[in-house]
Amino acid sequence: MKIDAHHHLWQPARGDYDWMPKDIAVLNRAYVPSDLAPTLKAQAIDGTVLVQAAARIEETEYMLGLADATPWIKGVVGWVDFEDPSHITHLRRFADHPKFRGVRPMIQDIPDLNWMLRDDVQWAYAALIDLDLTFDALGFPEHIANFRTLAQRYPDLRIVYDHCMKPQIHDHRAGRGGFSEWADGMSALAEDTGGVCKFSALLTEAGAGYTIDDLRPVAEHVLAAFGPDRVMWGSDWPVCRIRAEYDDWLGFAQQLSAHLSETERADLFGGTAARFYRLE
Q1: Distance from the first to the final alpha carbon of the chain
Q2: Where are the domains of the chain?
Q3: C-beta separation of 7 from 36 below 8 A
Q4: At what angle do helices 122-130 and 88-95 cross, to 10 degrees?
Q5: pLDDT tens, position by position, 231-265
Q6: Would you say residue 176 has pLDDT above 80?
Q7: Cα–Cα distance between 184 and 225 in angstroms, integer?
Q8: Which H, E and C letters describe the chain, residue by residue?
Q9: How confident is the model at residue 174 (pLDDT cuts 50, 70, 90)?
Q10: Residues 5, 250: contact at Cβ < 8 Å?
């Protein structure tokens, strides 16, 4: 199977998406399955993982409804409130849905860098393990050390590091450094934890005027550190449309992985996601 391990569908009229810039028209509009279906067919993508984009229980229910009506949505990653232990009820309810796979707290938007290690949110990680659900780790390079601590604290937690932990490619291009710190952190995640990594959102972090060569050091490091059997490609559509269309990013990813064997590319573009999310 060819799998897109990370994309979104949303309806801004729901009022859920507090982060969404009102002045970026390519984002601030509805995206429904019929908008993506022709591209998936053209690119022979067999299935997708639909990921939350709002810190609301109601959005998770909305996504599960879309998945019920859309065969190619193979899995849904939703949201519960880690600060409210009563949300274990929602988590158990979601876990009964055949396409629900796990959750993603929007850690990148939380001002407290140490939020994920607070005592009052630890119940959620234990619940994910008990329910055999996944954890999408969304953050920036400054969160890497804490994600490493978290993954080591809960070795049975099935964790995926979203978007290569958002390396600040635009800063590296501008000579402001940061690459070596990010690279060392990713190596530590790969070596010291059992987590996997999503190869996605690099265009967003590259900034305007990027070239494929600006992405190459990140791609090479992630693939070498984790190995293709622990890396999964995702489109991050429609967010990727800020910089390029779905086909463009997929083409770049294929070029950046052209040196891999056929088996390794099969892992990167489907196998890893299918195993991690247990997709049928």
Answers
A1: 9
A2: 3-277
A3: yes
A4: 20
A5: 999 999 999 999 999 999 999 999 999 999 999 99
A6: no
A7: 10
A8: CCEEEEECCECHHHCCCCCCCCCCCCCCCCECHHHHHHHHHHCCCCEEEEECCCCCHHHHHHHHHHHHHCCCEEEEEECCCCCCHHHHHHHHHHHCCCCEEEECCCHHHCCCCCHHHCHHHHHHHHHHHHCCCEEEECCCHHHHHHHHHHHHHCCCCEEEEHHHHCCCHHHHHCCCCCHHHHHHHHHHHHHHCCCEEEECCHHHHHCCCCCHHHHHHHHHHHHHHHCHHHEEECCCECHHHHCCCHHHHHHHHHHHCCCCCHHHHHHHHHHHHHHHHCCC
A9: low
A10: no
Dihedral angle computed from the Cα positions of residues 191, 194, 195 and 199, in that order, rounded to the nearest 10 degrees: 60
Q: Under CATH, which architecture does the 3-277 domain have?
A: Alpha-Beta Barrel (3.20)
Tokens encoding 258: 């052209």
The two tokens of residue 156 are 């049975």
Average pLDDT of the residues in 17-31: 94
Return d(Cα 13, Cα 140) in angstroms, integer: 28
What pLDDT score does 66 carry? 98
- Could you tell me the two tokens for 127? 């619940």
Distance CA 221, CA 161 (A): 14
Q: Which residue has the tokens 């993508």?
A: 45
Between the CA of residue 178 and those of 13, 145, 205, 221, what are the distances in Å?
A: 38, 15, 13, 14
Task: Report cis status (omega within 30 of 0) of the bond before 238.
Answer: yes
